[in-house]
Amino acid sequence: MYSEKHDMFRIPGSGGHLIGSWDLHKHSKSPKLQRVFFLSFPELSKAKRDLLDSCYTSEYLVESKATGETFLIKRYRKMARVINGIPKMKTEILVVFIVPDDGFAFFTSDIEDDCVFLSKSEPFCVNASSFPGLLASCVQVFDVDESAYACMKRVTICHSRVFRDGFKAPFYIPPQIKKN
C-alpha cells in the first residue's frame, strides 16, 4: 500500500511480523524493515484458536485517511468446498491490529467510523459516514470466489458467500479525490 503518512510504499511480510517500506525519493537497494510485535489478540475459545491454526492466512496493510492510523488485518480462510476440482476458500475470521510507528501492534475491535475494503486491488479505507449505506467499524471482502462482510465489534464474519463460478474482476475501486 502507499502510505500518505510515511510518503512511501509499505508491504507486510508473511505472518505480519515485518513491514517493508520503500522510499521512492531516496535511492536504496533494500527496503527499510520494521519489526511488528503483537501485544494483544482477541479472546477466542480453544475451538476457535484450533480452527485458526488450520487456516490459510493473509495479511493486509491499510491506512486510515481520517485518523492516520495503520491497520494490519489478518484474514483467516479455510476451504469451503471443491467445485469441479477447484477448492473454494471461505473467510473464517478477520482480525484487525493497529500498528503504531513503534511497531507494537495491538488488537482492536473498533476501527471507529472507518470501513475497510479488501480485494485483489490495493486495500483501502473510507469514512463510513461519508457514504450512505456503509456501516462503521466493518471490513468488506471481495475475492475470486467469495464476498464477505465482517463487523469488527463482534469479531465475527456477519456474512460470507462462496460463489460457484467466481468473479472475473474481484476489485474494489477506491473513491477518487478530485484535485484542483
UniProtKB/TrEMBL annotation:
<dbReference type="Pfam" id="PF03478">
    <property type="entry name" value="Beta-prop_KIB1-4"/>
</dbReference>
<protein>
    <recommendedName>
        <fullName>KIB1-4 beta-propeller domain-containing protein</fullName>
    </recommendedName>
</protein>
<dbReference type="InterPro" id="IPR005174">
    <property type="entry name" value="KIB1-4_b-propeller"/>
</dbReference>
<feature type="domain" description="KIB1-4 beta-propeller">
    <location>
        <begin position="22"/>
        <end position="143"/>
    </location>
</feature>
